[in-house]
Structures are given as C-alpha cells and as structure tokens.
Design a protein that fits this description.
With 200 residues, the protein is α+β, with helices and mostly antiparallel strands. Helices cover 67% and strands 13% of the residues. It has a two-stranded antiparallel ribbon.
C-alpha cells in the first residue's frame, strides 16, 4: 500500500505522509468511513432483544377515621418494580438486509478512502518527480551556460593571440545566448510546478 517507498527517498515518504495528514479530501473520506461504521453499530440493535426496567416507590398515609372513631392513622410504603423484555422477529429478513446494506455502504466508503489515498499519493509523487526533473534540467542547463561562458573566454583569448577567428567568437557567443535563453522558461515551468504542488 505504500508503493512510493520503493523509491527509497525519505523526503518523498515524508512529503506523502504530510499530504495524507493535511489533505481535506482524505479527512472527509475518513469521516465518511467512521460514520458508515457507526451506522452499522447502531443498527445492530434491531437483532437484539430490548429490555426495559422500571421501579417506583410511594409513601402513603391512611387515616384511621375511615375505620371508626379513635382509630389511629398509619403510614405504609408501596414498592413497585417491573421488567419488560421484547424481541422483534425478523421473519422476512428486512432487518438483516438493512444491516447488509449498511455493511456495503461501509465497504464502499473504505474503497473510496483507499482510492483517495492512491490518487493523492500518485499526484504528490508525480509532482515531486516533475519538480525534481525540472531542477535537474535547470542545474544541467546552468552547467552548460557556465561551460559555454568558459569556452567563450578561451576563444576570445585565442582570438587575441591569433589562434581563432571572429567567426569562432560569434559562434560561441551565439551558443552562450542560446543556452541562457532556455533557463527562464525552465524556471517558469518550475514555478508553475510548485504552484501545482502547493494545491495538493
């Protein structure tokens, strides 16, 4: 499941892990999976018996005058407790089908989360590789520019000493200008790639 670790780059691993932590799409998919799981737990109650217990206590005074003169009143306590157990028979299997439906929804949410992880990881890795490629191209182009500048300096020295012609100097100047001209477009592509990466 962590296929990007096969590149052997700890920086890339950290980048993907950070994307998983802060990406709102991943957080939303995780929340949807938790909700689907909780719905299953809540629905399990339809298959279990329901029990209800209640208790009450009363204190009453009975007047002795009801039974004749000079009878004293007396106080008595009345306690009542009851337990009710009921079970709904799932004769046609409606409750079980409802549970199966909720399980299917949970599985669907799990697959959506896995798809979100795969999509995000592939986007981050692709963007990181594209950015690394552009950086390498810029470095290589900068080395070419530096090499062209050194060659131009050598050809100019040769021209001064009579070992090269003006055409050689112009050719080296043209090559240096061409190498320098390609750098801004590569840097612009790198900035665009960074902009894409910041939106992941």
């Amino acid at each position: 499941t962590r296929w990007w670790t096969s590149y052997g780059c700890p920086a890339l691993d950290a980048l993907v892990d950070e994307a998983f932590k802060v990406n709102p799409t991943v957080q939303s998919a995780q929340a949807a999976l938790r909700q689907a799981h909780e719905n299953i737990l809540a629905a399990w109650g339809v298959l279990l018996p329901a029990a209800d217990a209640s208790a009450s206590a009363e204190r009453q005074r009975l007047s002795g005058a009801q039974f004749g003169p000079n009878n004293p009143s007396f106080v008595y306590n009345l306690y009542n407790a009851s337990v009710t157990v009921s079970y709904g028979l799932d004769v046609w299997g409606g409750a079980r089908r409802q549970l199966e439906s909720l399980r299917a929804q949970r599985d669907y949410q799990r697959y959506l989360l896995e798809g979100t992880y795969l999509t995000l990881a592939s986007n981050v890795v692709t963007t990181a590789i594209a950015e690394a490629s552009l950086r390498a191209q810029i470095d290589a182009r900068q080395h070419l520019v530096d090499a062209s500048a050194r060659r131009l300096a050598v050809v100019r020295t040769q021209l001064r000493l009579g070992g090269a012609s003006s055409a050689d100097v112009l050719a080296e100047e043209a090559q240096l200008a061409q190498d320098r001209a390609s750098l801004p477009s590569l840097k612009d592509q790198l900035e665009k790639q960074r902009s894409v990466a910041s939106k992941l």
